[in-house]
Amino acid sequence: MVRPVCIGVVCALLVVGSAGGASAQGKAEQELIQVEKDWCTAMQKKDASFLERMLATDYVGISMRGMTNTKADATKGIKDPATRLDVCVDTDFNVRVYGDVGVVIARYTRAGVDAGGPYKDRTGWYTDVFVRRNGQWQCVASQSTTTVAASR
């Protein structure tokens, strides 16, 4: 009689453990989506301190125009008074988490002003790769691709 009870307890623990893993996975996915939303807000508010915390020291980004940039480039760029981000909307999130690594793929829409002048309806896709360090997600790599020519 002891044996079936023990097997039942082990099975119950495995089910609870699996559910806990699934909820941890879902929690990490939601955290990464929130980081992406906060990134948009930081870009609109020109909050360089957010980028300082969220971008890893070894961060490398590839812009929608095929230019590479570093954490220093990104924090310098956000402070540029000649640029402004008026619209920053991300949708269609596809988030995958592999332990302490997360990959976010999403569609973006942007409008604002850059070195070439005003732009609107700039849309495309991005892929961001994050690593969880000391309990915080940091972006280590980013790549974006424009799918519709920006209107100027």
Task: Describe, in plain words, how this protein is organized in 3D.
This protein has 152 residues and is α+β, with helices and mostly antiparallel strands. It has one domain (2-148): Nuclear Transport Factor 2, Chain: A (Roll). The chain is 39% helix and 46% strand. The relative contact order is 0.15. Residues 1-19 have low confidence and may be disordered.
What's the quick description here?
The protein is of the alpha+beta class.
Number of helices: 3
Count all strands and give the number. 6
Question: Might you state the CATH topology name?
Answer: Nuclear Transport Factor 2, Chain: A
Averaged pLDDT: 86
Write the layout of secondary structure elements.
Layout: H1 2-45, H2 48-54, E1 55-62, E2 68-70, H3 71-78, E3 84-98, E4 101-114, E5 117-133, E6 136-148
Parallel strand pairs: 1-6
Antiparallel strand pairs: 1-2, 3-4, 4-5, 5-6
Notable traits:
about 150 residues, alpha+beta, Nuclear Transport Factor 2, Chain: A, six-stranded mixed sheet, 3 helices, about 45% strand
